[in-house]
Design brief:
The protein contains ten helices and 15 strands. The protein has helices at about 45, 55-60, 85-95, 110-115, 130-140, 145-155, 180-185, 215-230, 250-255, 305-310; strands at about 15, 20-25, 70-75, 100-105, 120-125, 160-165, 190-195, 235, 255-260, 265, 280, 285-290, 320, 325, 335. Strand 6, helix 7 and strand 7 (about 190-195) form a beta-alpha-beta unit. Helix 2 packs parallel to helix 3. The longest helix is centred in the middle third of the chain and has 17 residues, at about 215-230. It is globular and about 60 Å long. The two termini are about 30 Å apart. It binds iron/sulfur cluster (2 copies).
């Protein structure tokens, strides 16, 4: 095991929460053609309906704010399964959103032919391994070949392509092998994520599935640096705060909305498996919810940092002589190397 004093990468810059900027993660459906082993979608909590085009437009209208930069991430499930996704992209762009689509790589309904790089700011693909052997063991047979083929097509058509790699104990050893692939595919942005404990991930019983602090700090910052050196913009979660760093809860200092097709709207992604959402969309109106809600937790100050992490993932925190050894940052806090 690596020394606990491993420091985070000095070349990485922490991206502070930006006031006046909003991120809207809109799950327009929860259906998917894949069954990834770590899928965080939980139909019991998120619904299993697909919103029709008109409803999506009305719900998007609720989040228009001409005074703020609003980043819209359209996702699912697999959002390209929605037959009207291209129209949703066009509508969103017209209303001033910076639009990203997060796809598993299948690009159903000929998405590339039905939208354009002028309308879609980023097309983001998910891969969890540098080859079929590693990726498909997590995401399913033939996913690697389909996804990489469609990345090539998207790049050839002039789309900005980003790639998301969800790090778990199953694939952290192969993260370093992503570099040649990212370069060959001409990926512009590389998002490294950490596996959560939500949805299917929470059911995995393999002890080696979660990543230890030591392994994370040993691998991820170095790989991020290597990707940056070849010109790829890399973003990865902060996860652990250094002693001198201040803890901030994104829900208190930034605007993030996670919208699900059953109408629930959360401000914190860690809360998404529980009926404690801040808002609900009812009859196309955004309403605050009463009772015990995620908002009741955001102002609690604890030595461990993030309250929801302490409640839901306490095994991430270690103590020595009764004192917290590693404060956990907000899961929305990122680092980047450009
Ligand atoms: S992780 Fe994404 S691509 Fe995989 S099954 Fe879940 S929704 Fe589908
Ligand atoms: S992850 Fe923790 S710190 Fe971040 S929004 Fe949720 S409760 Fe707040």
């Amino acid at each position: 095991m690596v020394n606990k004093a491993v420091k985070q990468n000095s070349k990485a810059r922490t991206i502070g929460f930006k006031t006046g900027e909003r991120n809207i993660f809109f799950h327009i459906l929860t259906a998917c053609n894949l069954s990834c082993k770590h899928c965080y979608i939980n139909p019991n909590q998120h619904g299993n309906n697909s919103l029709n085009k008109e409803t999506i437009f009305r719900w998007l209208d609720l989040f228009i704010d001409d005074h703020k930069k609003s980043n819209l991430i359209l996702l699912g499930g697999e959002p390209t399964l929605h037959p009207d996704l291209a129209e949703v992209i066009a509508y969103s762009k017209k209303k001033g959103f910076a639009v990203t689509v997060d796809s598993n790589g299948y690009l159903h309904h000929n998405l590339l032919e039905r939208t354009s790089p002028d309308q879609l700011d980023y097309l983001s693909f998910s891969l969890d391994g540098p080859n079929a052997e590693i990726n498909d063991a997590i995401r399913g047979d033939n996913v690697f070949s389909t996804c990489t083929e469609n990345i090539r097509k998207a790049v050839a058509r002039g789309f900005n392509v980003s790639l998301i790699y969800t790090v778990s104990g199953w694939n952290i050893d192969y993260l370093k092998d992503m570099m040649p692939l990212l370069q060959e595919l001409k990926v512009k942005r590389f998002f490294i994520q950490v596996i959560g404990l939500r949805g299917e991930s929470a059911k995995v019983e393999d002890d080696g599935f979660q990543v230890t602090k030591e392994r994370w700090l040993e691998v991820v910052p170095l790989v991020a640096e290597q990707a940056a050196e070849v010109g790829i913009h890399v973003t990865f979660p902060k996860v652990f705060l250094e002693e001198e760093e201040t803890f901030e809860c994104a829900a208190n200092v930034a605007e993030n909305y996670f919208i699900f097709p059953n109408g629930r709207v959360y401000q914190c992604p860690l809360c998404e498996d529980h009926p404690i959402h801040s808002f609900e969309i009812v009859d196309n109106q955004l309403q605050s919810c009463n009772g015990l809600r995620e908002t009741n937790f955001f102002n609690l100050e604890i030595a461990e940092g993030c309250v929801m992490n302490k409640l839901l993932q306490p095994e991430n925190i270690s103590y020595k002589n009764g004192k917290v050894e590693n404060r956990i940052s907000c899961c929305m806090l990122k680092q980047e190397i450009i």
